[in-house]
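Z., the sequence and structure:
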Amino acid sequence: MPFMKRFEKKIHLELTKEHFFLWANQNSTSLILDSNHYPNQSENFDFMVIKGAENTLSLHTTKNAFDTLEQFRKGIKDWIFGYFSYDLKNNIENLTSKNEDTLDFPELLFFQPQKILFVKDHTITFSYLKKYADEIDYDVTLLKEINLNFNTHFTSTSLISKTSKNSYLKNCAQIIEKIQLGAIYEANYCIEFFNKNILISPINLFIELNKKNKSPFATFLKHENLHVLSSSPERFLKKEGQTLTAQPIKGTRKRGKTKEEDAFLVHDLKTSVKDRAENTMIVDLVRNDLSKIAKRNSVKVTEYCKIYTFEAVHQMISTIQCEVEKKLSPIEIIKANFPMGSMTGAPKVNAMKYIELFENHKRGIYSGAIGYIAPNDDFDFNVIIRSLLYNADTRYLSLSVGGAITALSNPEEEYEECLTKAHSILTLLQKEKAS
């Protein structure tokens, strides 16, 4: 991973994840990407810790966002980390976002990091911009001195749903009616849980969330007053060499309380006609998106409706891969596939129009993607789901969840699936309140 702008040094340190997480949080801009030791996530690191921004691109408009990012990336010629918000859809298609924005996150945020730590077992690769290279030894001392005796602090932990159950059922029924009329085949309909005035320690809460859920695309992003605490299980898109990999999720079951119940729920998900239909529609959509930029006849479904088990839920995941020409830039590839089909529905544009109509909050960074683009044009981005979004200035905390509505959907069951997806995070907040 060496690059001419960076100085690299490998050091063996017997420290916990929390040492690195708390160290990074000392800066106004920091990012954590944690695979939680899931296989096939990355051969190069178990987790990455990024501290400090040397150059930053922050856009509060979707206009020309991808072109502006392309110029930024070409000028930096280094690692860049950041996110794409869902509402960048308006830069790609003739769409709008008129629902209330309660969080005030930029539509797009990317930065060149001052310091990157790649952690593999107990070997840490310090990758610093050369101007900060003489700070490595000092940072090692700081890491060793990190105080792990912390308490997650809340003044309140109650999150309420912006959409009542009756409203959800009514909207779900109307979406099913649109599907029956042939306007769309599937729509990902989401609801928000929120608190308008809550004081939290974002990094400490993320540490607890990460311990509980151990997701393969766990992410913590801090940029000044804005925070993302994500326990995402889903990959949006990865590029390694000339190979692209997309892994959409459709189909969810809670974990069982016993081995027998857990096995039953896995079988129930695996044999569900409805869930397989949802997954199949999104697989077809992703194949279509990839085909826009893929080498001819290279799009392949390498895993179809496979069941993956996580700490809180079972998920049905498919894997689609293709090959791309070397001349394509990472931004071109991402734009051609954004937003991810698992968070829109099909056909994609019409589904997004109905999403805007039935949802009552601006998604913003929720159902967008966080990740990195490397100097060699490789990249990896998650899907921002199972995530808390927090504005420390306004003390607004948000958790959105949703699911795919199809002609086979039962509104009551869809509502329960939303609660299943929110359960792990909501119970963590309640536990912290009780303690």
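Residues 18 and 401 are 27 Å apart (CA to CA). The mean pLDDT is 94.

Let me know what you think.
H.
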